[in-house]
Amino acid sequence: MAEAAAPDRNALPDAVFRQQWRDWIAANYPSALRHPLHRLVGAQARTWLAAQHRDGWRAPGLERAHGGMGLSLHKQLIYQQELERFGAARPMDMGLRLLAPILLRYGSEAQKAQLLPRILSAEDTWCQGYSEPGAGSDLAGLRTAAVERDDGFVVNGQKTWTTMADDSEKIFLLVRTGRGERKQQGLTFLLADMHTPGITVRPIRTLAGNAHFCEVFFDDVFVPRAGLVGEVGAGWSIGRALLGFERFSHGSPEVLRHAFGVLRRTCATLPKDELVRVMPILERHACDVADATALYDEVCATAAAGGDTDTAFSMLKLFNAETSQRIAEAAHEVAGQWGGVLGIPAESGLQDDLEWLFMVTRPLTIFGGTSQIQRNLIATGALGLPRA
Q: Which residue, among 67, 46, 45, has the nearest Cα to 57 in the 3D structure?
């Protein structure tokens, strides 16, 4: 039976909307999975997203005409605030968060009709095929090649750091279909089925103990022409638009606030005579959290008013990522000998796994655009410096 269309909640007073969403989360989200730095994957993610879809709480920013809630940006922020307040882990939902906006802007009517409903229902999960060995931050340097045929494309090459490729039915990827004066020319945006013959996935286990990242190999993989998004050779502009959507999702100071909570709890385990030593560290990072929150609120208000926020979100991404790492390092230092121990030793008095926090904050300055890339964007966008 098809799910009923989501009711229009834009007309609700903010307080009513917030309470309804808060109550629904509490009634439907598994309490055992509450952790802001964890990621829901596999069946856990599908179950959570399918429940949202079933009850009309899926896709807050997607227009109602396409199956979403069609919320104003203001109510979308309330929606996100309540998820963060509850401590709900973020599901790996790249189909909705990244691909859906691309399909709405560049996709054909057939692609929208076929793919969007399956994204919303969580029947299809998607991964992103961008980074390659030697072409991570320098995305324009990618070498995975697609040879065009009348009925589609034959793809050969390799992608790496592909999040959840081993648990995805589909992949959206950039490939090289030609050469031009600039290396940004000749790129094409394709959609492929992960079960296509010739695709091989190899998980990469990280120091944090998970294997969410993967290598993906393409050996004479055929992608039908229906998998082409936009025009052949127009992939650079489409890919950059997608990165814009991705950076928006990295603007929230949620991780920063969680890391500061860990630091505060770690300081609380110290004897009173040692608190004087660490109090300046705690106060400095409390100011950092307040600054990040204020900047996020300001940027969101600008976005809600229709203003340009591209450079501001680069600032947020940069500040949140690097400060989260510094706070994790501070927690290590405060904990002394317990800082580098995996798990939570009973005799330490700690409430948090500090080594795990340290490990999971390391990639923050890489994914979604490295710190170096963000500094370049800020230099050219905010300071007006010439491009290199």
A: 67
Residue 246's pLDDT is what?
57
Q: Where are the beta strands (DSSP E) in 225-376?
A: 228-229
Are 249 and 131 in contact by the 8 Å Cβ rule? The answer is no
Phi, psi (deg, nearest 5) at residue 132: -135, 165
Q: Which of 19, 15, 51 is nearest to 33 (CA)?
A: 51
For the whole prediction, is pTM greater than 0.85?
A: no
DSSP 183: T
CB 104 within 8 A of CB 245: no
Identify whether 246 is a catalytic site residue. yes
For residue 280, give the amino acid letter: P
Q: If we measure between CA atoms, which residue out of 211, 218, 174 comes closest to residue 194? A: 218
- List the end-to-end C-alpha distance of the chain, in Å, as a whole number: 56
Q: Which residue type does 97 have? A: R
Identify the three-state secondary structure at position 365: helix
302 CA to centre of own chain: 21
339 vs 266, higher pLDDT = 266
Catalytic residue among 246, 322, 333, 355: 246
Q: How many CB atoms lie within 10 A of CB 275?
A: 12
Question: Distance between CA atoms of 254 and 264, rounded to whole angstroms?
Answer: 15
Q: Domains (ranges, CATH) in the chain? A: 14-91 (no CATH), 126-233 (2.40.110.10), 250-381 (1.20.140.10)
Residue 308, judged by CB atoms within 10 A of its CB (0-12, 13-18, 19+), counts as exposed
Cα R_g (the chain), whole angstroms: 22
The contacts found for 286-292 with CB under 8 angstroms, 24 or more apart, are: 286/260, 288/256, 288/260, 288/323, 288/326, 288/327, 289/253, 289/256, 289/257, 289/260, 291/319, 292/253, 292/256, 292/316, 292/319, 292/320, 292/323
pLDDT tens for 229-257 read: 999 999 988 887 776 555 555 678 888 99
